[in-house]
Write a structure and sequence with these properties.
The chain has two domains: 118 residues, Aspartate Aminotransferase, domain 1, CATH 3.90.1150.10; 238 residues, Type I PLP-dependent aspartate aminotransferase-like (Major domain) (Aspartate Aminotransferase, domain 2), CATH 3.40.640. 39% of the residues lie in helices and 16% in strands. The protein is built from 13 helices and 13 strands. The strands form three sheets. A seven-stranded mixed β-sheet has the order 2-8-7-6-5-3-4, sandwiched between helices. Helix 5 links the parallel strand 3 and strand 4. Helix 2 crosses helix 10. The model has no long low-confidence stretch (mean pLDDT 97).
Length: 365
């Protein structure tokens, strides 16, 4: 869709990336790192100073187990690399991995490349969790369950009660729970992000994937991290050392120093994105699009059934080529999409003038 947007000179609300820069102070710290000679390999697990900052923040959540920065955190060149290394390390030939559709598009291919078998379960029609169906799909072949919170594309947030139900379903098993939490600092309307790392019952089965690219509005930096107890981290690192070996050194030093000096920075991320969401949603309230709830991340799902009966891929193509606004058809996140579903995903992590230009077009449809 980004290529189609470029071809038709359309406003690109499809691919999920911010239109604005990271904080100026963070960019200055990157420049200082570059100029001071911090340009060689980092340790495979990442700069300890950054891992210590991450562990301090995670341990401030309060729970019955501690994250050890030396053994439990691995800095990786982007969350996608962390996901890939985790699947390669923990999924064996013939293992089944349960993912919930709509799901981020890198999960299933990475599982297959690891020799695993994706078991795709669609969320309920109201996008609630299909707990009974999940229970029926868990077997002695199940190696992993993948959760994404806040969710891409739906913008929904996994609650504590959701985590406790999932924990009860995998108790007394060795099933790994992989939680993709790259939008963890974008949660709205007094909702609270609950990490898999906050669930004591899952402490020895949990892997969390996080992204500085999302948190710093710098997706092109490709910097993320994987958190898991030492035994799991050791296996993930065995793969990671031959995948990339080390992440970007100057960015790691800059991130550590910036976070140390800005202990409340992450709160500002939610505030910025909620303001963007509200601006976009208020504008769309004057249109014929129907808005689905958006509790986190930076995507708004819209139902266009009052405008067109075209399939979502056809409507997305028409919207891009004829009306010059690009979105993502939600069917792209399914293996077996509902043919009657009429949903698009728009990314609202854009400057207000871009959002307003989009709204002016969308409200005329």
């Amino acid at each position: 869709m980004s290529a189609l947007a470029a071809k038709h000179n359309a406003i690109n609300l499809s691919q999920g990336f911010p239109e604005f820069n990271p904080p100026d102070d963070l960019i200055r710290k990157v420049n200082e790192s570059l100029l001071s000679g911090r340009n060689q390999y980092s340790p495979m697990a990442g700069q300890l100073s950054l891992r210590e900052v991450i562990a301090e923040r995670q341990n401030a959540w309060g729970r019955s187990f501690e994250i050890n920065p030396d053994t439990d955190i691995t800095i990786v060149p982007g969350a996608t690399a962390g996901l890939f290394a985790t699947f390669q390390a923990l999924v064996q030939q013939g293992d089944e991995v349960i993912i919930f559709d709509p799901s981020y598009d890198s999960y299933a291919p990475a599982i297959v490349l690891a020799g695993g078998i994706p078991i795709r379960i669609s969320l309920n029609q109201d996008f609630s969790m299909p707990w009974e169906l999940l229970k029926s799909k868990i077997s002695n072949r199940t190696a992993m369950v993948v959760v994404n919170t806040p969710h891409n594309p739906l913008g929904l947030v996994f609650s504590l009660s959701d985590w406790l139900i999932l924990a009860s379903l995998v108790q007394n098993t060795e099933i790994i729970v992989l939680s993709d939490e790259v939008y963890e600092h974008m949660v709205f309307d007094q909702k609270e992000h609950v990490s898999v790392l906050q669930i004591p019952e899952l402490q020895n089965q949990a892997v969390a994937i996080s992204s500085f690219g999302k948190t710093f509005h710098a997706t092109g930096w490709k910097l993320g991290y994987v958190t898991a107890k030492a035994e799991l981290s050791a296996e993930i690192r065995k793969v990671y050392q031959f995948l990339a070996f080390a992440a970007n050194t100057p960015m790691q030093f800059a991130a550590a120093e910036f976070l140390l000096q800005n202990p409340s920075y992450e709160n500002s991320v939610s505030e910025i994105m909620q303001t963007k969401r509200n601006y976009f949603a208020e504008g769309l309230s004057q249109s014929r699009f129907q808005l689905l709830p958006c509790e986190g991340a930076y995507f708004q799902i819209v139902d266009y059934s009052n405008i067109s009966d075209l399939a979502d891929t056809d409507f997305a193509n028409l919207l891009t080529s004829e009306h010059k606004v690009a979105g993502i058809p939600v069917s792209a996140f399914y293996q077996n999409p509902n043919p009657d579903q009429r949903l698009l995903r728009f990314c609202f992590a854009k400057n207000n003038d871009t959002l307003q230009k989009s709204l002016d077009i969308l409200c005329r449809l």
